[in-house]
Amino acid sequence: MEFRDLDRHAFYAGHPRPLAPSSGSFESIDPSTGKAVCKIHSSSPKSVDAAIQSAQEAFPSWSRTPPVERARILQQAVALLREYNDALARVETIDTGKPFSETSTVDITTGADVLEYYASLVASGGLNGESFRLRPSAMVYTSKEPLGVCAGIGAWNYPIQIALWKSAPCLAAGNCMVYKPSEFTPLHAEYLADLYRKAGLPDGVFNVVYGGGDVGSYLTRHPAIAKVSFTGQVSTGMKVAGAAAGGMKYVTMELGGKSPLIVLPDAAVDQAVDVAMMANFFSTGQVCTNGTRVFVPNSIKRSFERTLLEKIKYVRAGDLFNPATNFGPLSSKVHYDKVIRYIRQGIEQDKATLLSGGLEQPANIPPELKEGYWVQPTVFTDCTDEMSIVKEEIFGPVMTILAYDTVDEAVQRANATELGLAAGVVGHDIDLCHSAISKLEAGITWINTWGESPAEMAVGGWKLSGVGVENGKRGLEAWVRNKSTLVEMGGSVPTSFSKL
User: Fold this and answer.
1) The pTM is what?
2) Residues in domain Aldehyde dehydrogenase (predicted)?
């Protein structure tokens, strides 16, 4: 498997559809160079209808396939993902601008882990219901039934990982999917669809459509769609959830965050800085769970800043396929402009102290990459809670340091947001760590680390950061509906209409 700079078209009923009607096209851009890679044809309503029809036709057979047989096919897809890991990682690097050192060790691997987890879960009885004796002559049993044809709408920051996080439980539960990748990072979708086909997935079980918000809206509102799983920003997610709710559809929403990281007073400064850097600069800060509000005790603030300035030198931008590179460009020109506006806002309007970084490109960017969407890892300190760079999600490598005096004060300020995706603490006293975590209003939390989300760990946001969870056993429940059956075995039916 290798990257092909060919036009992309809708994929349904087991094949790409170059002759399918489209509603225009757009270019996929390599963010490291700013140059076009290939053309993507937006799927017309007729193409979306055809993809949904393909899924509808595949659903009866796939939903009746025994879970262990579905699992065998999905496990074969896992094997192919691992076999083609580096080739798929190269595609992700070209599409997202992430260094190959990251995509080759994280993006495909973590997606394959989730697919393997759900295949193993359904093969070992994860879809079993329960049964109980109601009375001597009656029993009740339940079953978990697939929903039908589901829509998956992906995000641009972890394209293939998110596609697998959505399709793995969906397909394992016996559903079919029509998947729309982000228009900013669409290259993975056809490769994943083709890989599923090679693994033995029946035609029509996994389908792909392309386009922007108009395609996503049409897909969401389609009466044949039983569920919508969306990952993206809060404002878009609220619209998607509203449209889906109007059609009584199931939803899973994984939305944005402005997550706090609290460095406790007894934390080792060196460790705290390492966690803060992972929480802000991994994937060039383009992670929804990033801990961009870093609360540091006044007592160690200066030491924390000195150590951070020493370690930020280890953030290395450059050739994305150089093993030493660990920091890439932002994913698109639109997003680059947004992040630069926020950095300028922090300097000129918020008047925060610029500790490191700023508006210029990172040093030592090769000449051939100068047109890419590069920014420096940026740190503001002496920040206050009302600053725009502190309150609003930037989704870039911009850390804000906020000083505090007491842990209770830090927790209260950390919770003063409409968002609640993630939170974390760093400290030596594990009892204090657990106490602080228990008070933080977020659905995903970490102690003395940041960012790891294994397949077994259900993750999802509180407040405006989401609805439902992904991954873990609870993640499978989001793709099934319950059926309860009462069985009367007494040979007679109690009735109010007996003869007097």
Assistant:
1) 0.96
2) 22-484
